[in-house]
Amino acid sequence: MCVESDGCEIEGSSSSDEVRTLSGSMSPGLKPSPDLHSCKPGQKFRDALRRYRTPAVSAGILSFGNVLNYMDRSTVAGVLLDIQRHYEVTDSGAGLLQTVFICSFMVAAPIFGYLGDRFNRKVILSCGIFFWSTVTLLSSFISKEHYWLFVLSRGLVGIGESSYSAISSTIIGDMYTSNSRTMMLSVFYLAIPLGSGLGYILGSGAKDAAEDWHWALRVSPFLGITVGALILLFVPDPKRGSADHMEGHIPHSQSWISDMKALAKNRSYVFSSLATAAVSFATGAFSMLIPIYLHRAQVVQKEVEACTKKVCSSRDSLIFGAITCVTGLLGLVIGAAATRFFRRKTERADPLVCAISMLGSAIFICLIFVVAKNSIVGAYVCIFIGETLLFVNWALTADILMFVIIPTRRATAVAFQSFTSHLLGDAGSPYLIGKISDKLQERFASSELWKFLSLGYALMLCPFIIVLGGMFFLATALYFLDDREKAEKLKKLMQQTPPSSVKV
């Protein structure tokens, strides 16, 4: 009799089948067992899926999904010169694309955070990916007479992508703890610079290959649909708090209002969210406008001509994308290594490493606008160092949140942190800096030199905001230990006390 490894009989075999030995008698080890049962349809396939639903595989799929999340955002930035020429819009009009995207993103994030704390997270993730991939593909067919519709499409993409950003990291947080969680979150948040850099490269490469910028928006949607399917098949929805050894039933907060009140009283969470907003302000403006600024710098140096052709030069987008990929990897590796080292010296290592790296980043980002007029290579060097230091804090900020927030409130905390960081950060920074640049250009005679200088003067606001973010991380360090201790006590109380009597 032939038997499957999970204890069920293969279709077509029978318990009455006899297997004879050389002596002619039935082998005792092969006699039918009463525990055997017929295989259900698809049982072998489901068992195979369960074998691959490991934390490492799940974290890998979620990290790849995060790469696509950020790749989709920066694909538009990678061909922004072409979009600007095609739709005939100003710097502020180009910046409006990012502003509309982020505004819809931040409004939807708290809603998905609420849903993520209460319903099946992987289903929400997959639906979000399918939605944003479809809208991105359709937006590539919008004609030049309907720029408002193209702007609206970016807003719809922001809604889809907010579901992923609000929930995905909490699944990893429920599969790993301590240094393992820091490492896996570092890999996960490597997607921010890696995806952003690949977005520039993919967008520019697809545009050059097809000699049409619309094709930059027609590649990532198919990858997104693939990742959505992989999440449904291989990523589990782990029990909330399982990695924190919270056994039994874990109570939810009484209401969303009680969650928000608790988060508002958590000073480490508040200050780290404000610091994240400063990072978002700078990265939002940089991701959209730095390639244009670098192109104008080379026009001033007479290395290239101004964009008047059907397809603009992709050189700066490609170089900036490659730098972003490399600096993202370096920043996250340096951040994880530095935090692991300094945790032996002080328990406040996470916020202190973030603060020092941001203050150092501000210096080199400021230098970009000093050297760009005379040396494009010098500008790239400053961008490389400044971005590396800026990317140190991405995973560490998420780890700070995991330390000071209880598991049943983490999705809401991630979503609201995303909301505030975008509201005060990149929701307005691309449009604001583009508007400042436009106003400066209007006040003086238009020339290629003045277009370059006006955008540089507007971007000079970013290093000052980064310094402010470093100050907020220093404030986080003051309250980090107290808030972490409160979270640990509350988790123990939730384990020991009946659910109905726990006030969270």
From TrEMBL:
SUPFAM superfamilies reported for this sequence: MFS general substrate transporter
Spans through the membrane: 95-116, 123-142, 184-203, 215-235, 269-294, 318-339, 351-372, 378-406, 453-481
Residue ranges of every copy of the Major facilitator superfamily (MFS) profile domain listed in the record: 58-487
Classification via CDD domains: MFS_spinster_like (cd17328)
Pfam families: MFS_1
Keywords assigned: Membrane, Transmembrane, Transmembrane helix, Transport
Region (Disordered): 1-35
Bilayer disposition of the protein: Multi-pass membrane protein
Keyword Transmembrane: yes
UniProt GO cellular component terms: membrane
GO terms assigned for molecular function: sphingolipid transporter activity; transmembrane transporter activity
Ranges of compositional bias, category Polar residues: 12-26
Gene Ontology BP terms: sphingosine-1-phosphate receptor signaling pathway
Chief location: membrane
PROSITE patterns (UniProt xref): MFS
Subcellular location: Membrane
Similarity comment: family membership: Belongs to the major facilitator superfamily. Spinster (TC 2.A.1.49) family.
Protein name: SPNS lysolipid transporter 2, sphingosine-1-phosphate
Organism (species): Xiphophorus maculatus
